[in-house]
Design a protein that fits this description.
The protein has no helices and eleven strands. The protein is an all-beta fold. It starts with a strand and ends with a strand.
C-alpha cells in the first residue's frame, strides 16, 4: 500500500503561482508513474498532468498546458506541480495519484486526500 500526502494548496490571486507537493511512501518510487487530478465543486474529477517513473515523460491536459509543470524527485519520493498564471477556473481540490507501473497510461491505484487551491478574481 502506498500512502500519498499532498501539500502546498492555498488561496492565490489571479495570475499568481503555487507549487503543490506530494510525498509518497513507496519503497521504489521510480516504479510508479504519478499524476495530478482536480475536482471543482459540482464537477467531475479531471486529469491535470502526469509523469512517468523512469524517463520523466510528461503529459498535460489542454487547459493547463504552458502554465503548469509536473516534475518529480525520485530521491525524495516526491512529485510536484508548479502552477503559474493561475485563473479562477483552476480553483479545485487537487489530488495526487500513483500508478503501479512506471509508464504513462490510464488507471491509477493510489490517491492522496487532496489539497484545496482557490484562485480569487
Amino acid at each position: 500500500q502506498v500512502q500519498l500526502v499532498e501539500s502546498g494548496g492555498g488561496l492565490v490571486q489571479t495570475g499568481g503561482s503555487l507549487r503543490l507537493s506530494c510525498a509518497a511512501s513507496a519503497r521504489t518510487f521510480s516504479n510508479y508513474a504519478m499524476g495530478w487530478f482536480r475536482q471543482a465543486p459540482g464537477k467531475e474529477r479531471e486529469f491535470v498532468a502526469a509523469i512517468s517513473g523512469l524517463r520523466f515523460s510528461t503529459t498535460y491536459a489542454d487547459p493547463v498546458k504552458g502554465r503548469f509543470t509536473i516534475s518529480r524527485d525520485n530521491t525524495k519520493n516526491t512529485v510536484y506541480l508548479q502552477m503559474n498564471s493561475l485563473k479562477p477556473e483552476d480553483t479545485a481540490v487537487y489530488y495526487c495519484a500513483g500508478r503501479r507501473w512506471p509508464g504513462l497510461g490510464d488507471g491509477y491505484d493510489y490517491w492522496g486526500q487532496g489539497t484545496q487551491v482557490t484562485v480569487s478574481s
